[in-house]
Design goal:
Length: 507
């Protein structure tokens, strides 16, 4: 499990750009994983918040990450997309940031909620609804939103960060987690504590329905207007009939249409308590300094029980499943096999198998489909998809070349998969896998932000950030026999789901 996130850049001053360069630059000296482990300190606050500190005095900068153990898979039934919408809310500010009059704004937001509630109630009457009332309530809501918007100071949170030399203010939501991060000069680390803790101590869910509209537009672009997105949604829906991994992370449009601010507040109270958060401060700081700041700012968060893990377990698949999407685009192929969660003992073997099958230009299916047979323009594999906290999918994919069908590529991929069951990997292949995995880990840890994200991710998944430094040992311990055994157990026909886009003529 190596966590990967794209980092956004909040451009501003020349100083901010220089800081970002320092953060992104690799170390001049040889990379030493052991030295990282020795510089990590951890502690917990009485309210349950866990804190990880990585001291690195190379440059006067610090990268800060907050990892919330909640994601799209935790969306309540009937409220899919809520985790993604709430990620947007965390940038809207507090009763002191993002408003010019908190009391008046609060009353205005209540008026928005009331108008939306009337519209929602009437709309849900379906064929019994009064369309004139629906239009009137919609107009009332729009006017209430406009009135509430008069109290909003747009992007004040981001401007404060930028004015103080902060860069990379961003967040990401996956099925398993929501992560917030940015970097700033180390002499501004207290500002991070003040701002970040305020997000969870005193959030104001303002402009909620506007942000829901933004997420709806994301859905239109990423799924409804994308052949790949359409197939992905159908593929996951067929592969998972019980577990939430089968629901698109951006949510169903009908659910997004009916989301309420009240549901967002309830979601926050359930999943954003300190016991469900892990923070990491990596950079030019002292541990005692961070302890005091943590107690001062995050210590004010009210204790709350840690939410339970999802109880839904995907039942065993009883036979191959197939789904086909018709679209006026080039063909696309996806093949998935159910596999255990990332914490399973076979995770390293599955990771190694995905590497040799379809990760990089030297992988088996890339060499055969793209380079040798030239029947695909792209091909690859993932050890875990769409996430890894719960049992998920070992997945391979291909984008066929013009004139080639998905079935043509499927035949070749299945042939390559069968080889794992019938032929042991060579010692040279195993050696190459281990070298690539070490390079991948080093690459992820070669920046302050990369190190911070990995540390909080492993602390959340395994309950111990030190597991990060066991990854190479686990990969190095994998044998050819392990990979063959796991292939026979996981890569079976009855455990397989196949999804494809079949090209149709444009209407």
């Amino acid at each position: 499990m190596i966590h990967k996130f794209k980092v956004g850049l909040a451009t501003g001053s020349l100083a901010a750009a220089c800081i970002l360069t320092l953060l992104a630059a690799p170390k001049a000296n040889a990379f030493d994983i052991t030295s990282i482990e020795q510089r990590v300190t951890e502690f917990a606050l009485p309210n349950g918040l866990r804190v990880i500190v990585l001291e690195d005095h190379t440059a006067p900068v610090v990268s800060c990450v907050t990892w919330a153990d909640v994601g799209d898979a935790d969306d309540p039934k009937g409220a899919t997309g809520l985790a993604h919408v709430f990620e947007h809310m965390a940038f809207k500010g507090t009763s002191e940031i993002g408003t010019n009059n908190a009391k008046s704004e609060a009353k205005a937001l209540e008026a928005v909620d009331a108008a939306f509630g009337k519209w929602r109630t009437e709309t849900l009457k379906a064929h019994l609804a009064d369309t004139a009332l629906i239009r009137a309530y919609r107009e009332e809501m729009l006017k209430a939103q406009e009135a509430a918007g008069a109290f909003v100071v747009t992007n004040e949170f981001g401007k404060i960060v930028e004015e103080n030399g902060g860069v990379g203010l961003n967040a990401g939501t996956g099925y398993d987690q929501t992560v917030y991060f940015f970097s700033l000069p180390s002499n501004r680390v207290e500002l991070w504590f003040a701002l970040e803790s305020s997000r969870f101590h005193d959030p104001v869910i303002r402009e909620f329905y506007k942000e829901v509209d933004v997420v709806k537009e994301e859905r239109r672009m990423r799924i409804e207007s994308s052949p790949f997105g359409k197939l992905m949604e159908e593929f996951l829906g067929v592969a998972f009939k019980a577990h939430p991994y089968g629901v698109s992370g951006v949510g169903h449009m009908s659910d997004l249409n009916m989301l309420t601010r009240e549901e967002a507040i309830k979601f926050f109270k359930t999943y954003y308590g300190p016991s469900n958060l892990v923070i990491c401060i990596a950079g030019d700081v002292q541990v005692e300094q961070i302890k005091k700041l943590s107690e001062t700012y995050f210590g004010r968060l009210k204790s709350a029980p840690k939410p339970q893990r999802l109880s839904t377990v995907e039942p065993p698949q009883l036979g191959e499943r197939r789904v086909e999407v018709e679209d006026a685009s080039q063909p696309i192929l996806m093949i998935g096999y159910h596999r255990p969660a990332e914490t399973h003992a076979d995770n390293a073997a599955l990771s190694a198998m995905a590497d040799i099958l379809g990760q990089g230009r030297t992988s088996r299916i890339y060499k055969r489909l793209v380079k040798q047979d030239k029947i695909a323009v792209q091909a690859g594999a993932f050890p875990s998809f769409p996430a890894s906290k719960y049992p998920n999918l070992f997945m391979a994919y291909a984008i066929p070349s013009p004139g080639v069908t998905a079935a043509d590529c499927e035949k070749v991929i299945l042939e390559e998969i069968e080889k794992f069951k019938n032929e042991l990997l060579t010692a040279d292949e195993l050696s190459q896998i281990k070298a690539r995995k070490k390079a991948e880990l080093v690459n992820q840890l070669n920046s302050l932000q990369g190190m911070a994200i990995q540390l909080v991710g492993y602390e959340t998944a395994y309950g111990d950030w030190r597991h990060l430094f066991k990854e190479l040992d686990l990969i190095n311990a994998v044998t050819a026999e392990d990979i063959q055994r796991v292939a026979k157990e996981v890569l079976t026909g009855t455990n397989r789901t196949v999804g494809s886009v079949r090209t149709t003529e444009a209407s």
